[in-house]
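Okay, can you check this protein?
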Amino acid sequence: MKTLFFLTMIMIASCSHIPAKNNLNINELKVAMSYGTMRPLNDIDPDIEKDLLVRLYQVPMMDGNCFIETHGTCQNKYYLSVSTFDEFPETNIFRLNMVGEVSGIHWLQEDINDHAKIEFTFNKYTKEALKNNRSLVNFQSKILVELDPNTLEEIAK
């Protein structure tokens, strides 16, 4: 009886759910993989050595009303995937808080292993949305993203 109880407890513990560190759910990943476009970031600023493989996923947000009677995209949301170059790489996916359209990306020199600093320039709306709806006011902002396989920090500039 004790053995059966012990095996049952092990089975329950092995089936328990551990929440993700980055608060992504499976539906977000499905949408990102189905409708998103992937952009490899390691080719940007080739003179800077990169210890991580970083990819940017742009996913259209369909909740805007910038386009009159059409189905255009006003803003995009963004995800970053990160991976080390080890024999057994650490990987992770993070959602960026900024939405809009990325208009610039710049890597910054970093001396810490498996760590990256990337500066993103965002426009509040896409170019197409601004052309279609002249009443939209565009704001441009910059964020500094510091990331490693376990954490992502966004710093407004």
Strands lie at 37-40, 52-61, 75-84, 91-108, 116-123, 140-147, 152-156. The longest strand covers residues 91-108. Residues 20-156 form one domain. The two ends are 62 Å apart (CA to CA).
